[in-house]
Amino acid sequence: MDTGQRRGTRVASSQSARQVNLRSVLRTLAAGEADSRASLARVTGMARPTVTRLVAELLDSGLVAEVGTGSSDGGKPPRLLAVNRSARQVVAIDLSRRPLVATLADLAGTESARHTVGGAHTAGDRLVAAVVDVVSDLAPRATAPVAGVGVATPGLVTRDGVVVEAANLGWHDLRLASILQERTGLPAWVGNDADAAALVEYGTRAGASDGLAVVRIGRGVGAGLVLAGRLHAGARAAAGEIGHLVVEPGGHPCSCGNRGCLETVISVPSIVGQAAAAAGADPAGLPWDATALRHRLGDEAVHAALQAAGTRLGAMLAHLVAIVDVTEIVLSLELEGVGEEFLETVRTTLVERLLPIDGEQIFVHLTDYGPDLILHGAHALVLAGAFGMARP
Amino acid sequence: MDTGQRRGTRVASSQSARQVNLRSVLRTLAAGEADSRASLARVTGMARPTVTRLVAELLDSGLVAEVGTGSSDGGKPPRLLAVNRSARQVVAIDLSRRPLVATLADLAGTESARHTVGGAHTAGDRLVAAVVDVVSDLAPRATAPVAGVGVATPGLVTRDGVVVEAANLGWHDLRLASILQERTGLPAWVGNDADAAALVEYGTRAGASDGLAVVRIGRGVGAGLVLAGRLHAGARAAAGEIGHLVVEPGGHPCSCGNRGCLETVISVPSIVGQAAAAAGADPAGLPWDATALRHRLGDEAVHAALQAAGTRLGAMLAHLVAIVDVTEIVLSLELEGVGEEFLETVRTTLVERLLPIDGEQIFVHLTDYGPDLILHGAHALVLAGAFGMARP
DNA sequence: GCTGATATGTTTCACACTGTAACAAAGTCT
DNA sequence: AGACTTTGTTACAGTGTGAAACATATCAGC
Questions:
Q1: Does the beta-carbon distance from A257 to B46 stay under 8 Å?
Q2: Using an 8 Å Cβ cutoff, are B331 and B316 in contact?
Q3: Which of A233-242, A327-336, B2-11, B144-153 comes out lowest in average pLDDT?
Q4: In strand D, which positions have an atom below 7 A from any protein CB?
Q5: What is the predicted pLDDT for the residue at A3?
Q6: What is the CATH number that goes with domain A201-371?
C-alpha cells in the first residue's frame, strides 16, 4: 500500500485508480455501509465484477473475511464480508505524555502490549532513540503483520511527517516519519497530538459528517481540525495552535512572553491557579482533579474558576465555529471530575456569541477516550494512512 | 468536461483518470509551470507519449495552441504551448451588488460586454428570472464557445450550487446551479461571494501557496477561505460567516437582534457611524469614502473610527490565523480612500495577538481588484469548475 | 562542413484496469 | 415445480498509461 505523506502533482494511472477503488471498498466495509459484494457495488458505484476482484485481493491479504451468509431478499443470499480487525497490528505512540506511552494493538484498538518509557525530560536525539527502541521492542511481539507505526506528538508537524518545531521535545525540522521508516523498516505516520485526536474522534463520532474539532486543554491548549473529511494542518502546520492567542490583552503573563494568552485563562494550571487564588491558597502541588480541589479550596472558588474558563472557551469556540463551520466539538480536558455543568457554561456562551440558528446546531461533548485519546489518535493515523479507514 | 459540484463516493476508472491528467496538464500550463510537451511530462510526472496525447486533445479543442518554437538546449528545440485564453468565454454574475452586474469575458477575464440589471429590490423568483435573462442575453453575443456561467451570491451556498439561505435575495434552498443549467443550457457554478473572491485571489496571489483568506467589509462582513488549495465551505456552507459573531458582548444592537456583533464594529456603515458620532454629525447620507468623510467630519473623528475598526479586525484575523493557519489575508473594503495606515493598524494588532514568530509571517493586503473583485470571483468559479484552473 | 551528442516529439506495443453481457448458483414466491 | 430475483463469476471488449524504439532538429567540437 501507499506509504502516504507525500504531496504534489500525482499522476492518475490505472494502477493508482485501482488503489483508490481498493481503499474505497475497504472504507465502505469498515464504516458498515455495506456487507456483501453486491451491496459494495451499489454503495461505491463500481461494477460487480470489479468489486469481486478487489474483494478477492482483500481476502487474500487477510484484511477482509467472509463471515457467513446473509438472509435472502428474494434471490441468492449474499456472502457477508467484514473487515478482519485482528489481521494487522499497529504500534501507536503518544509523545504528549512524559514518560511516553506506546502500545501494540490490533486494528480495532484492542491492546496486546503497553510500554511507558523514558524519563520525564528525555528529549532531542535521545528521545528519537527511545521511540525507535520502543518500536523495535513492540513490533516483534506482534501476532499479525504490523501495518505501521503511528506517532502523535506535540508541536508542528507537516503532512509528510516532519516535526517542524516541538520545543518541549527539543525537536526542530526533524524528519521523524522517514527516520522511523528507515530504522524500523515499518511505514510510519507522524502527526500533531490534537490532530490525531481529531482524527480518531472523527472516525467514531456519528454526528461528525464531514467536519469536527477537538480542543485539548492540559498544560497547554491546542485544537485539531478535520475539515471536509480531512485533517487540516494549515500552511505552516500551525492550524489549531490557539494556546498563545492573546484573548485578554494586558492579562496574566504567559510563558511565551506575552500577556493574556488563552493558556493563561483556560489551561489546567491556570484554572487550578485561579481557584487557589480565590481561596487564598498556595497553587503549588494542587491536584488536577476538580472534586479534590472542591474539598481543599471550597465549592465556590472552584466553581468561579470553571465558570471563567468555560466562558472564555465558549467565546473561542464561537470564533472557531464562525470561521470553519464545524458542528461537532470534542473537548479533552486533563482536569478530572469536570462534567456537564462546565459544558453547559461553554455551550451557553457559544450560543450567545453566534446567530441563534447557528448556535443551536453545534454539539459540544467531552471525549469518551479519557487520557488515552492521543494514543488512539496515533493509532488512527496508521489506519487512515495505510488503509484510508476513518473508523477503527 | 465534468459539470463539477457533486459529492460522495466517486469511482476511479481509466476515463476519470484521464480527466484528472487532462486537467493537470491544463493547470500546469495555465500556471506557467511548463511550456512544452517535454516540460509538461517532467512537471506532471507523466510519460511523454501520454502528454502528447493529452495535448493533442487540448489543441483540438482550441484551449491550447502552439505558439512558436523555444530555444534549443543542446537538442531539438521544444514547440512552445500556451493556453489560448480567447478560446472560450465565460458569463460571470455578481449578486452582491444591486443592481446585479454581469459580464461576458474570455478566460483571461477580458470583458466584451457588461450589463447591470434589476431594481435594487428584485428578489425571489423574479431575481432568478433576471439572472436567467441576463445569461440568455449575454451568451449569444459570445464570439467563442461559452464555457459556463459563474454566479457569486451572498448567503450560504453548498458545493453543488444550492443556495441554502440568502435572506436579502429572498432565496431558501434554491437549486440555482441546476436551474441555470436547465434554463440556459450552459453549465453553471454558484458560490458564496466571499468564497468566490477567495478563489480568484488565491489564483493570482503569488504568496498564497495553499491557503488564503479574503475578508469582505461592506454593509456586512464575511470571509472566504481557501484551505489546502480548495475552497472551504464548511459543514453547513457557513464557513467564514463571521459578521454576526459577538465580539463585544452588550455592545451596539445589530440588525440580527443580538448586540455587539462584529458587523456593529467594522462594517462600513458602522465605521461611518462611529466617525459621525465622534464629530457629533448625522450619519445618514454620508458617503462611503474616507477622504470625503475627513473633509466633512474632520481627520480626528475618521482616524479614531478607523483605528477602532482596524484593531477589532486585527484581533479577529489573529483568531483566523491561529485556527486555520493561513499566511495570506486579502481585505476587500467598500470604504474608499483607506490605505496603508489602516492596514498598519490591522497588522500591528494581529502581531500583538499572536506568538511573535507566527505574526511575522502573515501578509495582509488590500485587494487589487477593487469593486470588481466578486465579479472576477464568479469568473474564477467557472475556471476552477470547468477546467480546474486556479489562475485566469 | 561533417559527425556525435542531446533533447523533443511520435509510433508501436505490452500491460493494467474497468465495465458490459452472459451465465451459474441459490434462494423466494405463486 | 416453475418463474422470478438477487448474488457472484467468467469472458471479452474498450480505454488508458508507460516503456522502448525511432524520427527529428539543434548544438558542440574537430
A1: no
A2: no
A3: B2-11
A4: 4-11, 14-21, 23-28
A5: 28
A6: 3.30.420.40
CATH of B209-369, one of 2.60.40.10, 3.30.420.40, 1.10.1740.10, 3.40.1620.10: 3.30.420.40
Q: CATH number of B14-83: 1.10.10.10, 1.10.150.130, 3.40.47.40, 3.90.226.10?
A: 1.10.10.10
CATH 3.30.420.40 holds for B89-198+374-387: yes
How big is the CA angle at A124 (ends A123 and A126), to the nearest 5 degrees?
75
CB distance B377 to B200 below 8 Å? yes
Sort out which chain A residues have CB atoms less than 8 A from B43's CB and list them: 9
pLDDT recorded at residue A343? 97
Copy the grid coordinates of residue B24. 493537470
Q: C29 C1' – A74 CA distance, angstroms?
A: 8
Sorted by sequence, the CB contacts under 8 Å of residue B140 that are 6+ apart come out as: none
- Whether residue A322 and residue B18 make contact (CB cut-off 8 A), yes or no, is no
Selected residue of A205, A230, A261, A319 to mutate for chain B interface (largest B Cβ count, 10 A): A319
Q: Where are the domains of chain A?
A: 14-83, 89-198+374-387, 201-371
Task: Report the gap between the CA of B238 and the closest CA in chain A (Å).
Answer: 6
State the pTM of this model: 0.93
Handedness of CA A187, A192, A197, A200 (dihedral sign): negative
Is-same-fold flag (B14-83; B209-369)?
Answer: no
Please indicate whether, in this complex, the C-beta atoms of A356 and B257 are within 8 angstroms of each other: yes
- For residue A249, the chain B residue with the least C-alpha distance is B353
At B9, is the pLDDT very low, low, confident or very high (cuts 50, 70, 90)?
Answer: low
Q: Identify from A26, A324, A328 which residue to disrupt to test chain B contact, counting B C-beta atoms within 10 A and taking the largest count.
A: A324
Test A18 with B9 for CB contact under 8 angstroms. Answer: no
Residue A185 corresponds to which cell in the numbers above? 523498516
Q: How far is A20 from chain B (nearest CA, A)?
A: 7
Residue with grid cell 481543599, as numbered in its chain: A296
The helix or strand, by DSSP H or E, that contains position B227, with its residue range, turns out to be strand B221-227
